[in-house]
UniProtKB/TrEMBL annotation:
Organism encoding this protein: Mediterraneibacter faecis
Comp. bias intervals (Basic and acidic residues): 128-140
Protein name per its UniProtKB record: NusG domain II-containing protein
Organism superkingdom: Bacteria
Upper taxonomic lineage: Bacteria, Bacillati, Bacillota, Clostridia, Lachnospirales
Classification via InterPro entries: NusG_2_sf
Positions of the UniProt region annotated as Disordered: 120-140
Amino acid sequence: MKKKDLFLGGGILFAACVLFLVMNLMQYVQAKENGQKENQEKQVVIKVDGEVYGRYALDEDQVIEVQEGDFYNRIRIEDGKAYMEEADCPDGYCEEQGKINNRTQTIVCLPHKLVVEIEEVENSDDSQNEKEHLPDTISK
């Protein structure tokens, strides 16, 4: 065995160890971010003509009836998902859009200018506890 082969083997072993540590660090950071996301509560936000009609907890089963002027929509929140249960719009596409439970998904009823979307908000209890532990002033 030559001296160069020994250095090459040691270099490869060192690179593998560094790569292993970097991968473990990335997993740790990702797990920590997922833990923070669990503290976020999801809300169903209903907007009519660009204005917020109401905000509703996604984890609470309920039915929201929206009646503005001549139109009627019924949104059902069930098992952590929201969907358009009934609408009196002429095309009915909003009823076919399925169930949503993620902030990247929306339900849109164009004839009624109604949008149903999911938002993530911080739990007020956790953020309040963090605010209580912050100092009021910092001095030298």
